[in-house]
Structure prediction request, 341 residues.
Amino acid sequence: MTPPGPFLLTDERGRSHLVAPTVDGTLHTRHGWISHTDIAAAGDGGVVHSSLGMAYLVTTPTMAEQIVRMPRGAAVIYPKDIAVMLMTADITNGNTVVEAGAGSGALTAALLRAVGPSGRVLSAELRPEFAAVARRNVARLCGGVPANWVLTEGDLREVAAGLAPTGSVDAVALDMLAPWECLPAAADLLRAGGHLVVYLATTTQVSRLAETLRLTGHFTEPRVSETLERGWHVVGLAVRPEHRMVGHTGFILHCRRLAPGVVPPPRRARPAKGAYGPDYQGPRALGDPATQTGEAGGADPRGSAGPLGDAGPPGDANPLGDANPLGDANPLGAPYSEERS
Ligand SMILES: C[S@@+](CC[C@H](N)C(=O)[O-])C[C@H]1O[C@@H](n2cnc3c(N)ncnc32)[C@H](O)[C@@H]1O
Prediction:
């Protein structure tokens, strides 16, 4: 019989090994070897010794501990950010969530756990090789491929209509290079009040997404945050922050789907003078004087006409289309890569 697992073995210096025990398996470390049978016998919270006498604490790994150690195709979302995404988008038991791209399956597994067996996670992944990695990782993290998970290979923009009926989804979670391209799909899928939560690695992506989704007229004003996690060293009187920390992972943007036909309430705070001035190169509404004359002049181009200016909803007349002045200069339009820069 295959021993239970996986287990995390941590040595006296904090170095750790993730082990999925097999019948005749052996873990080899710099401090000698340990049989998988001994690891399984020590069990969760136990201690096992290597052939050279090093003591290892044995624990059942948390999902977060597995995510940062699992094999990757595309870059995963860090557990601290996944936690914030789940809470921000209020993902709960019974929800239907659409996710793209599935990447390495880290967010997928956490979504599946949050929605529970009565919910559904519908993932899209553009690249078949990453979809295969996601399938393996989700099976590992969830103890098998969950029956309430559908992974569709393809571009979310093309497969969205087949994932769920229009207006039926509680939340859409995006983690990809160009999430603004998927806003029409997200708007179609989400129910009124549904959550859009997006993970973004760079400020240029944040800006382009925020401005683009304002122009759609389908979403509430976006909120953007970053979560910094700093560990602390706590030994006797030596209580201080750790010397090292992960300085940057990503940004999280969140907004809600407005009910169809609803015009978003005007923003209370007017943009700072110059926010859409001559140096601003991002998306602009059609009818924006700056778009038509090339003069921005520092005035709020959306002015008293409301946050969307003259822009209507996206579609064929989508003002984001060719009018997007980011064009070739957009660093995000660089050769396709899902590596975080
Ligand atoms: C950074 S990875 C996602 C990682 C994932 N969130 C995780 O935690 O493991 C981004 C993924 O999005 C996929 N992707 C990019 N654009 C897409 C689109 N329009 N539709 C579906 N998947 C897309 C890429 O192929 C890539 O695998």
Q: What stands out?
A: Confidence is low (pLDDT under 50) at residues 292-337. The pocket of S-adenosylmethionine is lined by residues 74-77, 100-101, 103-107, 124-127, 130, 155-157, 175-177, 182, 338 (CB under 6 Å).
